[in-house]
Design a protein that fits this description.
The protein is α+β, with helices and mostly antiparallel strands. Helix content is 28%, strand content 34%. The chain has an 8-stranded mixed sheet.
Length: 185
């Protein structure tokens, strides 16, 4: 599915919900990406982090509404130029590592995260990768609930993985979660 996503032809559809298009992230997308990143995370990725991921060949996607949604005002959330979410994936030999997934805060609790995770699992399947692995902060209850709902299980803990405070230098652990992808029909 990486090839499909790279061509922009991967579209997730749900009844009465806008279609999603996954387009490869470009350097020109970084202003929109950073505007969501900076309001979404305690310690957001920097422009350099995203640029490094793009340079390293990570699979980075911008998720927007697929074109030709009914009637909408330019700049509204149904405008295909408006960024809804993004994700960064690192392909390893036999697994897909989710490095970053972020949905615009104004569009959360609408099922977008679940739809994006489904597409990511589809990428793993099509690329013959037996599992998806990710890290999540123990304090990120909405993400933990979503991953558990989708069948992800804790496989480990990374001590002091995330910065937690700039003031006192405290750090937060990361819960390592994974989901096996059934590769056989």
């Amino acid at each position: 599915m990486k090839q499909s996503l790279a061509k922009g032809s991967m579209v997730a559809e749900h009844e009465h919900v806008a279609e999603l298009s996954f387009m490869p992230m470009q350097a020109s997308d970084l202003d929109q990406v950073l505007s969501i990143e900076n309001i979404s995370h305690i310690h957001p990725w920097t422009r350099g982090n995203f640029s490094d991921s793009l340079s390293a060949g990570h699979w980075a996607y911008c998720i927007r509404p697929a074109g030709a949604q009914l009637d909408f005002a330019p700049g509204s959330y149904l405008d295909e130029g408006v960024l809804w979410a993004y994700c960064i994936l690192y392909p390893a030999v036999d697994e897909l590592h989710l490095l970053n997934i972020t949905v615009d805060p104004k569009l959360r609790k609408l099922g977008l995260g679940e739809r994006i995770m489904s597409a990511i699992e589809g990428v793993a399947f099509e690329q013959n990768m037996a599992r998806v692995i990710l890290e999540v902060r123990p304090s990120n209850n909405p993400a933990l609930a979503l991953y558990k709902k989708l069948g992800y299980e804790q496989i480990g803990m990374r001590k002091n993985y995330y910065p937690a405070s700039d003031i006192d230098g405290n750090r937060e652990d990361a819960i390592v979660m994974a989901k096996s992808i059934k590769l056989e029909p």
